[in-house]
Amino acid sequence: MFLILSLLACDLGGKTEDEGPHCEDTRSPLAAEEAGALGFSANDLLPLVEADFTETLLYKDQSSTVLSLSFTPDLTAVEFVDSEAVYPETEGGMTTDIGVICDDRLEIGGTLSFSTEDGLFADVFSGVLSAMDVTTASLNIDLMDQPSAGTFDPESYPTDVYDSMSMGISAVFNADGSNGTVAGSTLHDEGCDGDICSASSEQLDVGSWE
Length: 210
Fold this sequence. Notes:
The protein has about 210 residues and is mostly beta strands. It contains 1 helix and 10 strands, in the order ββαββββββββ. It has an 8-stranded antiparallel β-barrel.
């Protein structure tokens, strides 16, 4: 599926993208048993992820394979992250009218074991478990940054030309078990006609489990 995006060019007064509205994080190391400002500790989250999960990964074409995953925490890499929205002033004292949502969270470093019976994945990825409350934790793996040791090849999924691509694993852990997706997208610059610039985007759905 392709989405055509039309973008109105504007003068930001020489400001770079990094100087626009953004989240500014302040990190505070915590001991595993120490509760952060959200009221729970890394140890409180462990029951959500301490199991070895066996799931069914359903591919886009409706075929499936057995998925095995588990998260191994590094309890020396625990941080509370205080995240605040920052709206820098542009020229003339104005601020950019873009809403930014920044969530405080507890983060735990570790590794995600992620393998499929069909050999598509056979991996141990480095990752960071993130939680805003004690009931749900999530983890994202960038598959462009950490290539799979299995047969998975992100380049085989786009169906048209593109300039950039993202692909990743998103996993969620809660009292019911785990669920998640393997998905990504591409972006292709279509060029500009005067002040109007366009780009096409393709959603790349590989598979999901629930």
